[in-house]
Each structure stands twice: as structure tokens, then as C-alpha cells.
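User: Okay, second chain of the day. Same drill as before: sequence in, C-alpha cells out.
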Amino acid sequence: MRASLPNDEELQRFLAISQQPLRRSLRVNTLKISVSDFLACTAHYGWRLTPIPWCAEGFWIDRDDESLPLGSVAEHLSGLFYIQEASSMLPVTALFDAAPDARQVMDVAAAPGSKTTQMAALMHNNGAILANEYSASRVKVLHANISRCGVSNVALTHFDGRVFGAALPEQFDAILLDAPCSGEGVVRKDADALRNWTLASTEDIAATQRDLIDSAFHALQPGGTLIYSTCTLNQIENQQVISWLQQRYPDAVEIIPLDGLFAGAEKALTPEGFLHVFPQIFDSEGFFVARLRKTTSVSALPVPTYKVGKLPFSPASRKLTAEVMQAAAKVGLHWDDNLLLWQRDKELWLFPAALESWLGKVRFSRIGIKLAETFPKGYRWQHEAVVALAQPDSSLAFALTEAEAESWYRGQDIHPEHLPERDEVIVTWQQQTLGLAKKVGNRIKNSYPRELVRDGRLFR
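Assistant: Same drill. C-alpha cells below.
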């Protein structure tokens, strides 16, 4: 750090802020609510929200009472916001600043989902995102977060990111590689982050990063945008990785400077045009962001020898699609031609139309959203589809009280003072869809998925 910083004064500032707790921050999920409506909806909390300069939906949050975890408030449970560190909002902002109309996007290392959901919101759930995660245990968390946020345009994979350059050459118009790194920038959040730091391990990590950026660059279309970012601060994992790529493909790599990304960006700008965000600059985590454009094709990687296997889905016929859309409309579920109906045995799924060219080239863990299971008497609509597709202002909406909404998240049946007229309703709270439920006798039967049920203190 002493070698990376301009003088001893900056080094002392760096050391001092590294001892201070990290400011909390959140990002409003505009797939579900506008920023202005979110501010009005949460005004009663008395939160002090300070806008983050590089993300129109991002805010630092200061609360007088932090006894209730931020993840247990109603607005988080219903997906109105994502708890995301401010610096980590930078890569997606940089990507869509250069490629606002990107339709085929890859997030190479996606879990837990902060950047994937940020991308989906900026894409308005259109196009398609391939969200990959190497760690099997983190794929489940990734899916839970995209489902909570109402994301419908994502396909999940579970691979080493080094496979994509060969498996999906020149398939993406925008790629985010938020690379695994030594984590020097997160010491304010994790005091043990540097406990096992060594120069040798840093060199090993950089070797993996070079492999990943090489693969990502091959998967990128000519003219496409690649963001390379890390939450570490050394030049070995940052500037030197980009320099290696430039030397490898000298005629194909163009740096797109980030000096105009937001007011104040010049404070973190490197001579090359990257953002090297030391934590003392914006009182945030440390981060590095580089933005590249692929100007021409590069020699292809060897064709992969692994077998993908036969896709166990088939596209639904026009007749079935029309029947399912008509039945779905009766329970308030609607979608447009950005999503296409596919079937597997008795399951019905909605796949993003923009990913059809990827099918058969890699094996997916999950594609789009599961819409329903078919039964002789109709369809059992799935919770993730209801959250993503139901409009809370539909005629089927049934507003719960705050206490009833809290009971819903606890997995308890609802006993409202006045029962709904319909047997099947979309239960809502704060004009947000919580799920689809049926009236059974004098109660509303809870259909909230068991794996999502919460206990402990909620809401207040």
C-alpha cells in the first residue's frame, strides 16, 4: 500500500479509515418500486439516506435504532431493496454507462446476486443474463436473491468461469467479471480479511484472474464491453491483469476511461483511466474497476470436449401457450414476448427469449422462472413466478394488515376480519405482492415456501 499511495499522508489516511466500521448502504430495486416511492414508503423509519454519487438507486443508510437487522424489515423481505456495499455498485454502473442497450449479458462470478439483480433492474427484466457461480453452496443463495427481487431474465450456471470463452465464443455484448481476489478492500467489513495474506497467494490469485479475463474476452462479441473489477487494492491483481490482456491481444483491447462516470470520479482515476478506489477516498470499501472494449475478434479457443447432454425441456406449442396465458391471467399473472413458455414433464417454465442461442452449448442449473406445475384440474402456480409477474394493483389483490403480513412471512395462515370474495387471491402488503393464496373456510391458507419462512423479530 505504501508503494501504491502517493505519499505518507495518504498512507496514514488509509490506515486510519481501515480501522473504522464500514458505512451501510442499500440499493433500491426498481423492478418493484421507484426511488421516489421507496423514499416515501420508508420515510416513517426516520432513516437518514445519503445518495451514492455513482448509482442513482443507491444510498448510504444511517439508523438510530439498529436493533432490528436491516434484512428483517418488511421492505427487504418483499424485495424493495438490496443491501449492497456502495463500491460494489460501481462495476454495473460502468458497464451500462457504456452499453445501455445490452441484451445478452454475463456475470461470471455472480453470487450472492447484488450485481446480477442490479443488472436485471437496469435491463428492466428484458434480454438475458447468464449468472455463473463456481461455488455450489452459493448458487442457492444467488437464486433466492434473484427470486426475492422479482428477476425473470436470468439463467444460472455452476462452472469454473474459464470454460465460457470456449463454450460460448462471442455470445455476449456485455460481460462483468468481478473476479475472485485477495480481498484487501474489505478489511473494514471483515477484520480477518488479511489474516492469511501472502505475496505468493496474491500471485496465485492473479494467475486465476488472467485465465478468467482471457475466457471472458473470448466470450465477448467484437464491439462489446467488458468490466473487470475486484475488491482488492494491489496492482498485481488489478492493473497488471489488464496489462497482461493488452499484451496478449494488442490489437483487440481498448480501454474506455472512467473519468466521466460520476461527479468526483477523478479522485480515484488512474493514469490508464481505471478507478482505483482506496477506502479513504469515498469512505467506502476498497475497489478496482476497469472498462474495456473488444475492437475485433481474436483467435478462437479449442472447442470444448465435454458433453452438455440433451436439454430436458421443449418449447410449448402455440395452443398450449395460449391456454396457459389465459389461465395465468385469471390469477393475475402476465408476461410479454421477452419470455417464452417451455415445458418439462408436468412443469411449465418461462425462459428469456434472448438466451435461445445459448441452449445446447452449456448446461444450466436453472433457466428463467418456474411458472407452474400441471394437474388434471389446472395449474399450481409457483411462488417465484407470482412474485415476478403478478401486479399488486390487480383485481385479485387482497391487502393484508402489517400484523397479517408479518404472520405471512412466518408461514402462518391468515385470519382476516373480512374474508376476500374470491377463493384465490394475491396477498399484498405496502402494495407489493407477497404471494398467491387460497381462501379455505374462515382463513387464508399460507403458501409461502417453507424454505423462506422466517422466525425471530421481523418488521419493527
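The chain has 13 helices and 22 strands.

User: Thanks, on to the next one.
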